[in-house]
Design a protein that fits this description.
alpha+beta, Pnp Oxidase, Chain A, 6-stranded antiparallel beta barrel, 3 helices, 7 strands, globular
Length: about 160
Amino acid sequence: MGPRAAPFVMAVAMAAVACAALAAHVAAPRTHSFLRIDGVLGASNDPGHLGWFDVAGWGPARSTPDGGAEARIRIVGQPPGDLAAAVASHKKLHEALLQDVEVPGGSLVRNVSFWQFTIANLQPAGSAYAVTLRATKVVCQEQSDPSQDRGPCAELNAARR
């Protein structure tokens, strides 16, 4: 390496460190999701979410042609019998609440409420199972600055416009 290459290499290394620090600073907090379904007992052992379901993953709710919304949520563990019974009977349930909380700390990041819904589908998905909720109304509330216009709530609201 010649004498001119050393300052260039040093500048590139410093830029890489600065970019990594900036990326770490603006990264979104890590979250864990929980789902509570009226009338169905989940198996979460989180002290703030006893009786809820631990959620392995979920995507933003999509608008449906009838004005409602549909969401697919992957839940950890095996489904309880009363959840399977609700699917089989097409029972309309009052409310399901999905919460994203920051890890560590447990600060609320997002609430997604599904009103007057049915569980349209229940399928095994590896060590989890996937449920599809079809709701008459979905209310999605970001706890951070809503003017940022990003994230699952922004996607749902944009689809409804």
